[in-house]
TrEMBL record:
InterPro entries: Glyco_trans_1. The keyword Glycosyltransferase applies. Its EC number is 2.4.-.-. This is Glycosyltransferase. One of its GO terms (molecular function) is glycosyltransferase activity. Residues 174-308 form the Glycosyl transferase family domain. Signal peptide: none annotated. Keywords: Glycosyltransferase, Transferase. It comes from Edwardsiella anguillarum. The keyword Nucleotidyltransferase does not apply. It is an enzyme of class 2 (transferase).
Length: 384
């Protein structure tokens, strides 16, 4: 008798970490019989070629954007799922009503960072009491979930993975331009206003490095204004959105994550797979990726949100509490101090990057190779 299918309930309007996992290990996977239900009424262009195999949760007619009335959507969702008759429903990074879920179907919550932002209310409390299992993308994610919500199920941790690639070690050459890169959505959360402040600090210490920022988003104009205001157009280059980041990683020496909150950064994992050392704040899941002092540095964050806004003129990055692994506490968010980040960039530069590159590639191969990710995911789901 064939195994029952697994339904993946996911919002496919945008394209970020969750959606990449769905595309790479569910749609393009080969290890299980899957059904995808999209909880958004639109579909990101990266999924257009697969549109015929994706069910729209709230559409009255699958081929049209006309939605069913909101008051019957909860029941309609579970009616759709009952007809599929799966063994499990994996609910990706969102909360849905489990009121109409049949006992025969197990509901598994997959957290990819949503728990940081979820409010503690009747809906979320009831949800976590009723789920049959939980997968968290980092130990930090598990810590935050356990701190906020009562649950009666096991929690498994599955770190993000990537298609690990390596590149030849590049000998450190003090005569070439040393480049620091960041690839991210230009959104408040990513706190990219830190990069001009860091570039300013390195220049003050006599080091004129290049900085490259890949990405687009709502803070694009504010970031450009800050770069212009500080006369850093020659040293900071913004290159927009890139479909393929391979060339980007191959042309940088250090990857920097300025984000105010980072569950388990895929971009940091990818950068390490190219032998790029990482600089990041020591927050959330970052030290689960970065080996401090070996594959880069996790720096204790000391800059307040208010100070950041004052110095950059940019939006408040994050207002929820975050996890501080160094002392195992949860508290108000803080950001990388630009001087601390600049000091570590200079330290890597002066030391030479070869040793960091070698250790970064090795760690990526040991911990983040995606060869068995789909198999492990399905085994974890079915074991709940």
């Amino acid at each position: 008798m064939a195994e029952k299918s697994i339904v993946h309930l996911v919002n496919l309007r945008d394209f970020g970490g969750v959606e990449r996992l769905i595309l790479d290990y569910v749609i393009n996977g080969k290890k299980h019989n899957w059904v995808i239900i999209n909880t958004a009424n639109s579909l990101n262009k990266r999924f257009h070629e697969h549109a015929n195999s994706i069910i729209f949760c709230n559409r009255a007619i699958q081929s049209a954007a006309i939605q069913i009335p909101s008051f019957i959507r909860k029941k309609a969702l579970w009616n759709k799922i009952k007809k599929i008759n799966p063994s499990h429903v994996v609910i990706w990074n969102q909360i849905v009503s489990l009121e109409d879920k049949p006992e025969s179907i197990k509901a598994i919550y997959y957290d990819h960072g949503a728990v940081w932002e979820l409010e503690k209310n009747k809906k979320t409390i009831d949800f976590f009491k009723k789920i049959n299992g939980c997968i968290c993308v980092s130990q930090a994610s598990k810590k935050v979930l356990e701190n906020k919500f009562e649950h009666h199920c096991d929690i498994s941790v599955m770190l993000n993975k990537t298609n690990v690639v390596s590149r030849d070690s590049i000998a450190d050459d003090k005569k070439k331009t040393f480049t620091i890169g960041c690839a991210a959505r230009l959104s408040p959360l990513k706190a990219l206003g830190l990069l001009p402040l860091i570039a300013e600090e390195t220049a003050l210490q006599g080091f004129n490095f290049n900085f490259i920022i890949a990405g687009t988003g709502e803070e694009e104009s504010a970031l450009a204004s800050l770069i212009d205001k500080k006369n850093l157009k020659k040293s900071i280059k913004t290159i927009g959105f890139l479909n393929n980041l391979n060339d980007f990683y191959k042309h940088i020496d250090i990857y920097i994550s300025t984000s105010a909150h980072e569950t388990c950064s895929l971009s940091c994992i990818e950068a390490m797979s190219f032998g790029i050392p990482i600089i990041s704040a020591n927050i959330d899941g970052q030290p689960e990726i970065i080996s401090n002092g070996h594959t880069g540095f996790c720096i204790a964050p000391t800059m307040s949100m208010e100070d950041y806004c004052k110095k950059t003129g940019m939006s408040l990055p994050f207002q929820k509490d975050i996890y501080y692994p160094e002392n195992d506490t949860i508290g108000p968010p803080r950001l990388l101090n630009p001087k601390d980040a600049a000091d570590k960039i200079i330290e890597i530069y002066l030391h030479g990057v070869d040793d960091y590159k070698k250790k970064s590639r090795h760690r990526a191969k040991e911990l983040f190779d995606d060869k068995t990710f789909e198999e492990n995911l399905i085994e974890t789901v079915r074991n709940f």
